[in-house]
Each structure stands twice: as structure tokens, then as C-alpha cells.
Design brief:
The chain is built from three helices and no strands. The chain is mostly helical and 114 residues long. It has a domain of 49 residues. Helix 2 packs antiparallel against helix 3. The protein is elongated. Helices cover 75% and strands 0% of the residues.
Length: 114
């Protein structure tokens, strides 16, 4: 293959890549948005949603307080028992926080359907 053919192939590939990048940037641009995407906003005017959010915040606060109490070492507990209990508590706390977060996601999904 002579050098002219190599240059044509390489420059063609570079041009195609630039066109591809440009097309993806244009598609992602907010100016190009023709309304096909809808932005979901939570409406804070709904009393029921506010009540559910307060419930979520309260559940999260209670779980964090309980977690703090459980992570402290007890006076009759050995170092080894304490570390095992801390590990179990971390797993339990992570699961509880995921459940609480799923509740909040449920609120958001329910609000977006209105």
C-alpha cells in the first residue's frame, strides 16, 4: 500500500470519528431537546407527599440513633465480641438504610405519576 492510500484511510477514519463525536454531542445538547425527554419534579404542594417525606426523615433519624447506640462498646463485652457485633450491626444498618432509601424512591415514583 503506498503512502497516499494510507493517508486517505487514516484521514477518513479520523473524519468519521469526529462526525460520530459531534453527533453524540449534538444529541446530548439541551438546545437540541425537542421535548421528548420529560424532567420529573416532585410537587411539594401535595400534603400526602410531605407527610411521607417527614415519615422517611423520621425513620432515617431513628435508625441512625439506634445504629450509634449499637456501635458503642458495652461494659461486659470483650473486644472480640464487640468487633463481631459491630460487623453484624454494619450489615444490618446498611440493609435498613437501603430499605429506607427504597421507600423514598417509591415516594418519588408515586409523585411523578400524578
Amino acid at each position: 500500500m503506498n503512502s497516499l492510500t494510507k493517508k486517505i484511510v487514516i484521514y477518513s477514519m479520523v473524519g468519521i470519528m469526529q462526525v460520530g463525536f459531534g453527533a453524540s454531542v449534538i444529541e446530548a445538547s439541551p438546545f437540541h431537546n425537542d421535548g421528548s425527554q420529560r424532567i420529573v419534579q416532585l410537587d411539594s404542594r401535595h400534603h400526602h407527599d410531605n407527610e411521607r417525606r417527614r415519615e422517611h426523615a423520621e425513620r432515617q433519624r431513628r435508625e441512625n440513633e439506634r445504629h450509634e447506640r449499637e456501635m458503642r462498646r458495652r461494659h461486659n463485652e470483650s473486644e472480640r465480641e464487640w468487633h463481631h457485633r459491630q460487623e453484624r450491626e454494619r450489615h444490618r444498618h446498611d440493609n435498613a438504610m437501603r430499605e429506607i432509601a427504597a421507600f423514598l424512591i417509591g415516594i418519588a415514583v408515586g409523585s411523578s405519576n400524578n
